Here is the input.
Amino acid sequence: MHTSSIDQLNVGDSITSLRLPPISRTMLALYAGASGDHNPMHIDIDFARSAGLDDVFAHGMLSAAYVGRLITDWAGQDRMRELTIRFTGVTHVHDEPTCIGKIVERFEVNGEQRLRVEVQCLNQKGEVKITGHAVVAAV
Here is the structure.
């Protein structure tokens, strides 16, 4: 969905956040099937415990997909020019991810106005799990 006023945004403005349901074991199993990533650290609690962990944890790329969805829900796929992320923490079962973004730069490339958006994915405690930035066309 395109935001019609995207071209009116300025440095310092926040974009609409994306709040996701809690991470469930079912979600992890479904993501493993869809992505082909069947690493037992994400879906087998016995395996995770044998590695010294309390429980399984979410695939990093699941959270990365949420960040991508934050941008495409806000600006649309056709406006996305770049997405760069860095994993900074583990997303645990029952965490409630929220993705946020803030405009940090307005610039031009080959005549196209663009916005650089600083992005984060946090859990319900405010712990940052992903940081990065996206570049979107502003018009």
Q: What stands out?
A: The mean pLDDT is 94. The radius of gyration is 17 Å. The helical segments are 25-35, 40-43, 45-50, 60-75. The chain is about 25% helix and 30% strand.
